[in-house]
Amino acid sequence: MKRFVSCTLGLGVASGAAAASYAAWEARQYTLREVQVPVLPAGHDAIRVLHLSDIHMTPEQRNKQEWLASLADLQPDLVINTGDNLAHRDAVPYVVDHLAGLLDVPGAYVMGSNDYFEPGFRNPLAYLLPDRGNRHIGTPQMPWRDLKAAFDRDGWVDLTNGFGELTVRGTRISFAGVDDPHLGYDRLDEVAGPADQSADLRLAVVHAPYLRVLDQFAGDGYDAIIAGHTHGGQVCLPTLDGRGRALTTNCDLEPARAKGLHRHPADSEPGGAGSSWLHVSAGLGTNPYVRLRVACRPEATLMTLTAKA
Hints:
Elements: H1 2-26, E1 31-40, E2 47-52, H2 62-70, E3 78-81, H3 92-98, H4 100-103, E4 107-109, H5 113-116, H6 144-153, E5 157-158, E6 162-168, E7 171-177, H7 188-191, E8 201-205, H8 211-219, E9 224-227, E10 260-264, E11 276-280, E12 299-307
């Protein structure tokens, strides 16, 4: 009996170690995902948008840095960065240097909670519990002002509780964005109101896709909302299609829309009043102390904006 118990425990330990090893491997399998979003007026040229989110960079992550730099070879027309670039207080130059080939491209950005506060060790199971955004109380701040200064210097549009505008391939794009709702930093009252109907395209940008923000932007008439934060669930149940089934989103968005392209509200039809496309990135990184992913590879997304059907 003792031998049986010992063997069972040994198999359990070995299985756990194998699972952890796989999850650590998957967290480094950087993937480019591609989607088409039919939001442009008829006759407008397609626009290639690179959506980056949740990079969570640390200085020693060389493979991630090289992969991030290689994205400039895609030659996108527009870059949208939905925050959580940092995971170490010395990471700003590593982010900026490896985004250098993209900072010359028209871009827009918002910050996330991990741009503002240092990460700490967390039990992965804690992500399954409610998070009111107050876990950062007393946590040291990150050098987010340096990151913002670099993005601003290179001409990216800061959408922190504000508006912006860019013309890309002849299409005039009107933007709105909010600071991180996960921390309660969003000031929806400052950006609420009908989207600019004189623009060719209206895009809203947010780090954490909380429903109050999505509802506001969709109701205001934005054609698409771009978000991150969820890590796609990060540790998902494997599925036959390979996309994985998220168990949590670390916000009040339902797990079925933890990543990828969806509608908001979820049951709305394209072109319906008060509805938008919603794209949520599963992101490129993780908390550096819990660098694990299961059935949810780290990603950047190349979104091709096309004419509406």
